[in-house]
Amino acid sequence: MAFETEQHGRFEIKSGPLGGTWAANAFCRKLLVAKAVGASREDAIAAVKANLDRLGRAESAVRDEEGAPSASVYEAAFALLIPDMPDSYLAMLRAHLAATDHLISATRLAQAAGYTGHEGANLHYGKLGQRIADEIDFDPPRREDGTKIWTCAIARDPSLDTDYPDTSMLDALAGNFDDLHFEWQMRPQVVTAPRALGL
């Protein structure tokens, strides 16, 4: 009657005896996401999986037109990522949060992080975006060569008109992505997440 662990998508489910019943807890890394009890281990696991599936459906319903989730999902992701985040990544996030209207260029991100040029900021902000995208289950738009624009997990092109959802992020970015003065606007749901964690 030992504790057992199994995977359910990106979640780890730990189950075991609890008094005269069985308990199952679901974690995303070390964050408790859902829990359930049952008459048997199988019942508890089935119940916690049903809870996870319900949470997933509810979250899918509140994703924006680009597929980015709610602020609460971002907050959970940042809670997991911030403790291991390099100082340069934290500096870029703080600079982006502090920028007027949360608009910032790669050059200014580079200055905040101490990089010598905008290329370093593009590379590392993209890497941060990829970490966040993995945590929030976000599939960013792709460039013409098929590579993903990971920064879109954090920010968007401010010229993207949300009144016309058929306009794709890629179309909006295509005209000015290579412009050194292009400014990323932090997603509204991203703005609230780091602040809630005291960043």
SSE topology:
Blueprint: E1 4-8, E2 11-18, E3 21-28, E4 31-38, H1 41-61, H2 71-81, H3 87-98, E5 103-105, H4 106-113, H5 118-136, E6 155-156, H6 169-174, E7 183-186, H7 188-196
Antiparallel strand pairs: 1-2, 2-3, 3-4, 5-7, 6-7
Helix pairs in contact: 2-5, 2-7, 3-4, 4-5
Number of helices: 7
Taking the alpha carbons of the first and last residues, their distance comes to 43 Å
Strand order of the largest sheet: 1-2-3-4
- For the secondary structure, the number of strands is 7
Low-confidence stretches: 161-169, 174-179
Shape by Cα distribution: elongated
Helix content: 40-55%
- Report the sheet-strand fraction: 15-25%
Pick out its properties.
199 residues, alpha+beta, 2 domains, 4-stranded antiparallel beta sheet, 3-stranded antiparallel beta sheet, 7 strands
